[in-house]
Amino acid sequence: MSAATPAQATSQGNRLLGTARRMLGTQEGLLLVLLVALFLGVGLYNNQFLAWNNVSDLFNVNAYIAVAAIGMSMVIITGNIDISVGAAIGVLVTLSGYVALGLADAGLPPILVNVAAWVVPVLGGMLIGAINGFFVAYLKIPAIVVTLGMFSILKGGLILVAGGNTLYNLPEGYSIAMEDFLGIPVPVWVMIVLTGVAFLWMRYSRTGRSQYAVGGNAEAARLSGLDTRRILMTTFILSGLFAGIASVMYATQYQTIQAVVTPGLELQVITASVVGGVSILGGVGTVIGSTLAAILIRFIGSALVFVNISPFWVKAILGILILVTVLSDVVRRRRQERQ
Amino acid sequence: MTTANPAQSHSSEPSRLQRILLRQETILFVILVIGVLLLSMQSDKFLTIENLLNQGRLAAEIALIALPMTLIIITGGIDLSVGSIMGLVAIMLGVAWFNWGLPLELAIVVALLIGTACGLFNGLFITRVGLPPLITTLATLALFRGLAEGIAQARSVRGYPEWFYILGQKNFLGDLTSIPNQLLIVVLSIIAIGAALAWTPFGRSLYAIGNNETGARFSGLPVQRNKLIIYTLSGFMSGLAAWVYVSRVSTTRSDMGNGIELTAITAVVVGGTSIFGGSGTIVGTVLGLALIQLMKNGLALSGAKGDSTTIVVGVILIGAVLLNQFIQNPPARLKRLLPGQQ
Description:
The structure holds two protein chains of two kinds.
Chain A: H1 4-25, H2 27-45, H3 52-60, H4 63-77, H5 85-105, H6 110-137, H7 143-161, E1 166-167, E2 180-181, E3 184-185, H8 186-204, H9 206-216, H10 218-223, H11 228-251, E4 257-258, H12 265-275, H13 287-306, H14 314-338
Antiparallel strand pairs in A: 1-4, 2-3
Helix pairs in contact in A: 1-2, 2-13, 4-8, 4-9, 4-11, 4-12, 4-13, 5-6, 5-7, 5-11, 6-7, 6-11, 8-9, 9-11, 12-13
Chain B: H1 6-12, H2 16-21, H3 24-42, H4 49-74, H5 82-99, H6 104-129, H7 133-152, H8 166-169, H9 181-199, H10 201-211, H11 213-218, H12 223-249, H13 260-270, H14 282-301, H15 310-328, H16 332-337
């Protein structure tokens, strides 16, 4: 008995080490470790970083990016891309504001007004996604071309209709993203729940799993009896759905709405997906990764302020982060191939 | 079988004339002419030499970037970082002159070298490490813009000497002609890059890389070297565009060139270059660019609101690709009706 104990201890230690190594071997694990290290490191340097207000901010500010990145991750996993998501969010945010103001003017009860202003942009997002999906899946136009065209059309359309207006006097109770539930901001709840649901759906549902198959090898997926066109269509509609939800989260976080397309928003969303470990070549990645990455991006932006580095450097650090992520992925894959 | 009926083989292949007529460039040219005629009826100011040359001045930076972008897309790659390189080069031009106290001539050289180095950086990651171009240049899009913003700290540099504005704001030979100076640089670049693409082994190898990179490597083409060259060229041309831009607008800011990559890619794809690589021409890109710029300008002169004209750009983009695909691969029902196709 006494002789076996050290051996047992080592085997247990090995198992722990193995688990740790396997965790670090996944992008999600690596991101989690980075988040914790950054949290503790910056927190030790400056206690203010750990103040509840700031911690809640760390998870809240990029929640809408994380939600949009769920849809983007699905699109990238099928081997496509969606450049139009930033312009779509700009249009849908404005749409939400117009619906709220218009229906409130018409004298509808506030609860109906607000629900309509939250639901219409989501439906609008699904419509935009369906149009993108139709061109990609059925007319066989490359996604980058279709969504680049959609980006131009939506951006121009918003200028034509709303021309940079600011919408204010939004109805009572409209700004749901400013509310808390059990002490945690609503957008954080939405982010956590949607990430969980999407993760399980992609892992266990037939269509969800098919997304990986289509991204891994579209021709093989088609030959093995998958309806790739329907899967692509579904993916783009879902991407629009998440863009719509992200728009509502964005629209309802302040008392006013700016009718503009935020420049580079699509790249923030794509960055979250890519840093989250979703391979641009398709077939690989999870939405847990993209959500963790969206949070990490906010962590870095906030941490800079607390360690007295000018926030103007945040994009440079983001660029290095993407390069390091992709490089580590290359190294990881080469090591796996060697084994 | 070997003694094929000449008439039959003739009818199954489109004639030379048909092939020329069905080229993307020809179709683009026809659309361009129709569009210009329609728009000239809307506004007297549109179809004047003065306006057209001025549009050339405004489109010069995008043109300089779209030319190397054509080469890159032909190889099946992409460069998203061009706008950020523009921003970084613009800032470094200002910093080297204003903060470091270099003579402005030397500052321009330093700035152009930095642009070239940025392109080389992209190229090395793509060729040596083997990262996908989309990811590499997405990362450097953030990195270069971040460096520009970090160095600039939201300050702008103004007050350049008078001679610096000649390139961006004056005409060729003083006022003897009404040709904008930067348009000459654009024309020279079009000729140089167009000739290199069409008539040199280097240019032809880009098509081979875009069609089948592995095949190109096995047939002994210097694939990695040529890819490195085009990404470096893209960095240099983005730097050139930054110089022209700063000279035109008289100031240096870190947000310069923001989003220009999407406009340049749009022009290239409208011009008939396949986003999958393997086909495309410089003539097509120039026509695509002219179409986009003139449609935007013509619509603005006819009373369209500001940037709302990008709607037309989006429609042209998707329309051009749909049309191209339709011509390359018409639906079976129509095929039978078209002469010379079976």
